[in-house]
Amino acid sequence: xxxxxxxxxxxxxxxxxxxxxxxxxxxxxxxxxxxxxxxxxxxxxxxxxxxxxxxxxxxxxxxxxxxxxxxxxxxxxxxxxxxxxxxxxxxxxxxxxxxxxxxxxxxxxxxxxxxxxxxxxxxxxxxxxxxxxxxxxxxxxxxxxxxxxxxxxxxxxxxxxxxxxxxxxxxxxxxxxxxxxxxxxxxxxxxxxxxxxxxxxxxxxxxxxxxxxxxxxxxxxxxxxxxxxxxxxxxxxxxxxxxxxxxxxxxxxxxxxxxxxxxxxxxxxxxxxxxxxxxxxxxxxxxxxxxxxxxxxxxxxxxxxxxxxxxxxxxxxxxxxxxxxxxxxxxxxxxxxxxxxxxxxxxxxxxxxxxxxxxxxxxxxxxxxxxxxxxxxxxxxxxxxxxxxxxxxxxxxxxxxxxxxxxxxxxxxxxxxxxxxxxxxxxxxxxxxxxxxxxxxxxxxxxxxxxxxxxxxxxxxxxxxxxxxxxxxxxxxxxxxxxxxxxxxxxxxxx
Length: 495
Ligand code: NAD
Known about the structure:
Elements: E1 5-6, E2 14-15, E3 17-19, E4 22-24, E5 29-33, E6 40-45, H1 49-63, H2 66-69, H3 72-88, H4 90-101, H5 105-108, H6 112-128, E7 134-137, E8 145-153, E9 156-160, H7 166-179, E10 183-187, H8 194-206, E11 213-215, H9 224-230, E12 236-240, H10 243-254, E13 260-263, E14 268-272, H11 278-290, E15 300-306, H12 307-322, H13 342-357, E16 361-364, E17 384-387, H14 394-397, E18 404-410, H15 413-421, E19 425-426, E20 428-432, H16 436-445, E21 450-453, E22 468-469, E23 472-473, H17 478-485, E24 486-494
Parallel strand pairs: 2-6, 9-10, 9-12, 10-11, 12-13, 14-15, 14-20, 15-18, 17-18, 20-21
Antiparallel strand pairs: 1-2, 3-4, 5-6, 7-8, 8-24, 13-23, 16-17, 19-22
Helix pairs in contact: 3-6, 3-8, 6-7, 11-12
Bound molecules: nicotinamide-adenine-dinucleotide (NAD).
């Protein structure tokens, strides 16, 4: 049986690598644990250098096989079948994503899984309308010449993914890469390997030829991540994750001068003006700080509030965050899950301790919730709000990636812009104001890739998505994704 999980009567299920259309074992299996209970979800087969090499070679061969010969229309139709295949197995994908991440099923069922499927439909559409450019030029003999550009796939794309939105962020790269005719080798996060492997089954069911989509499991350094990004036959690398990992991958990509597309970390600000609609600002900031237990790259960890409404804003956010409920992710009443792992919990709690040591006023939380029973071994932390820290504090400067924020008052628009911009990161900002002129003026001055006014995480997938400064290289979304996954080849014809 060509299934993602292998199972014997005596052993735990083991998730396999997906190479050349088949599920294959690799080296030593590692554990995948459920962050809600600490229980084993499955063992996962780590890809050794040999398995990664097999996957890259299969991807190279597939470029020259039926996939390479398909018309754009045929590829587009196959990608729609992949989207349908995910939706047909919605409950299975949902369960896998919830067991791996611990996030509430209510969140994953309206974001992770439907968006994971939608990514294939969106890029199936996008590729059909891609245009290139032509230039007619004069020549001394008067006959002229015609230049036109054609788009060709880059080749084998290495796709390295994080754990916070596993299926969604992976398909956000795989769908445009395949739409453009590339083949891919995906390295999902070691924390959340399951949906990438299940997608292998869907690819086979949808008629995607063997070798077009491959999955190798494992870790970063000296494991599948490094073997993949160092592999000389990978023609481009697309990565979402921490800035420090991006630095390591960029060094690997410099061998052979391979191009990279990077979506990296953030330390995003919200700027709340006194003329905002406070109800909307509280509702939006609740989501931007606490959604997915604060593990969203676009999430807010620094909130700047104009002084006249500062106390009211802090009190309202505290009241709303006090209503978050942790527990069984399949219970509709659960509104916040755990952090991804005990290791990440130790990191987040170290910032909770730093905040106290640096003299923060702890408005809410600041520790571990009192949960017992089945969830006592889960990696839960309390939703946390601080005030009173200096802007130089590590808690205010460094990405924590947890359900927490620091709130600071400001007195003028210029001061708010300066505070929001004072960061090595530049991913996203949310501005809350009912003054449209101010909204335009401030949005243009904040050094980030994505600004929301009176909303957060409202995504039109045709728009450019990405970060400035240390938050990324390049833009994804719509035609911008196609720019990375194709190369333009100019043809000049002397008439
Ligand atoms: P991470 O950088 O630790 O890991 C991401 C992936 O890289 C994993 O698959 C990991 O195994 C792999 N990896 C690690 N070291 C590697 C190496 N040396 N070579 C090759 N691969 C390596 O990130 P994470 O903890 O999984 O995710 C959280 C981070 O991702 C946060 O910083 C968050 O801001 C960022 N993120 C950014 C965006 C965005 O769109 N900008 C979206 C989601 C997450």
